[in-house]
Amino acid sequence: MDKHAHLRELIAEFIGSMFLVMAAISSMIMLTVVLEVPKGTAVFANALVVAFVLSALIEMFGSISGAHFNPVVTMVMVFEKRASVYKAFLYMLFQLAGGVSGTIVSHLMFYNEVGALFSVSDNVRNGSAFFGEIIGTFILILAILLLVKTGSKKISIMVGFLVGGQVMSTSSTMFANPQVTIARMFTNTISGIRPTDGLIFILMQMIGALLAYAVYKLVFSKA
Which of 51, 134, 135, 137 lies 20 to 30 Å (CA to CA) from residue 211? Predict the structure, then answer.
């Protein structure tokens, strides 16, 4: 692969990761702060926003970079020999950079409401939310592996539907993504997560992804 094509993949991962985080954070600022929507309604609307934006991003960048936007997705693609370790490392760096950029851009757009471009969250997410991250990440990774295996032409829609639905049906509101989790450590809005909880979320996400890959290899890979 030439250098230009490789750079194009990395930029796709950066932009996709940035807009995914923006969808999660900006929509909640708009809903809860600007429009003063009740929290329950805001979470429902946020699920729709994330589903719509993620579907579009996968459709846009799927043929360029694979539209991972998520280090645990990249990890299992290494397991499947669809990406090298070196490429995965670069993908993860650009995903993390894109996610944190998404937080900063969200704060910039709503600076009058937020009052800072960068801040450490003190939003507690613990207890059963940790288990929710295992469940949410498990079904996300299993779905991606099966959709890729079967050559589905509807990956963008199916993953968008799944993520939107899981936002509303997991106790953690489904982060299921280490770069999103890190990015959300640095927002003082309702979307944030305090770093100590965020690190446990990332561990749970890794566990969920590994469990999904094990089930895929044991049950579905030879189907």
Answer: 51
